[in-house]
Specification:
single chain; alpha/beta; Rossmann fold; eight-stranded mixed beta sheet; AB_hydrolase_fold; catalytic activity; Pimeloyl-ACP methyl ester carboxylesterase
């Protein structure tokens, strides 16, 4: 018995040392990533929260881009969407709370509505007037929450590969550990970043399938920033809270009266688009939709010209 207890204690001690070592490695890697990839844009204070955004483009009306889960502002730049839109329009991309260089204070719950209020306030602060608001994936929830809270401030919505109605999400269940007290701290700082390093390439293949992952995505995305513990925490919290956010918002979609374009890939393996995008288009009189053949969840990377054209038609 004593021998078994000693072995158990040794395993626990070894595990604790391994987790501590992983946490140190992740901390050092995060600082190195921040040195390699400093803020791509500007930091402003919005109600006590630092918000990071990029702002570029021509004299046309503003277009605001809101990224999905686990991502950051560079996503739209690497996809080639920003350059296409900025040829004629002012284009603003925001890091959502906890992603890139936008803060995510722990004194509040970062629902889609709370994130929308932060970004809407930031947009007003930098002089953005009635933008076309574009959201991809989780960003569609923030875009719609923004439009529901401030309909007079949103010219139109462009919703890309979104999740709009409460259905089962395996990825949401998988990241629920990020919400568990005690365990969340260990996961976000130690195991989570390492796990993402290991399975990330497979995950990227899944979100792009049936298309191939573009070389520009692998070569130019700042993955080091995306693997920082604070971003792992934000991604886990957002994923776990996604069904509750959708349940609240979907009860009010009928209040959306502005022009809306809904785009999705017919091969999306992450979101069942027949029960999401197709349903949204059928239920909203002001919405027009288009399925892109041979495309998965990352439609703005695989069909950037078509996505840009649909957005510009609203602007």
């Amino acid at each position: 018995m004593t021998n078994r207890i000693s072995k158990g204690a040794a395993w626990l001690a070894g595990g604790a040392v391994a987790l501590a070592g992983a946490a140190v490695f992740n901390h050092v890697s995060a600082r190195a990533a921040e040195k390699k990839f400093p803020p791509a844009g500007t930091l402003i204070d919005v109600d006590g929260v630092k918000v990071h955004y990029t702002d570029t483009g021509g004299p046309g009306d503003a277009i605001v881009l809101i990224h999905g889960n686990a991502s950051l502002v560079q996503d739209f730049e690497v996809a080639g969407l920003v350059s296409r839109l900025a040829a004629t329009h002012r284009v603003i991309s925001f890091d959502r709370p906890g992603y890139g260089y936008t803060e995510r204070p722990t004194d509040r719950e970062w629902t889609a509505e709370a994130q929308a209020e932060l970004l809407a306030s930031a947009a007003r602060q930098i002089g953005v007037v009635r933008p076309v608001v574009v959201g991809h994936s989780w960003g569609t929830l923030v875009a719609m929450a923004w439009a529901l809270a401030h309909p007079g401030e949103v010219k139109a919505l462009a919703l890309l590969a979104g999740y709009y109605y409460p259905t089962s999400r395996p990825d949401s269940r998988a990241v629920a550990v990020a919400e568990l007290p005690g365990i969340a701290t260990v996961f976000n700082n130690a195991w989570g970043p390492l796990q993402t390093r290991i399975v990330g390439p497979l995950g990227n293949k899944m979100i792009f399938a049936p298309a191939e992952v573009p070389p520009a995505f692998n070569d130019n995305m700042p993955f080091g920033l995306m693997l920082r513990p604070q971003q792992i925490r934000a991604s886990g919290e957002d994923g776990a809270q996604m069904p509750a956010n959708v349940a609240r918002l979907s009860a009010r979609y009928n209040k959306l009266q502005m022009p809306i374009v809904v785009l999705w890939g017919d091969g999306d393996k992450l979101v069942g688009q027949a029960e999401q995008s197709e349903r949204l288009v059928a239920e909203l009189p002001t919405a027009a939709g288009e399925a892109m053949p041979g495309v998965g969840h990352m439609i703005h990377h695989v069909r950037p010209a078509a996505v840009a054209s649909a957005i510009l038609a609203l602007a």
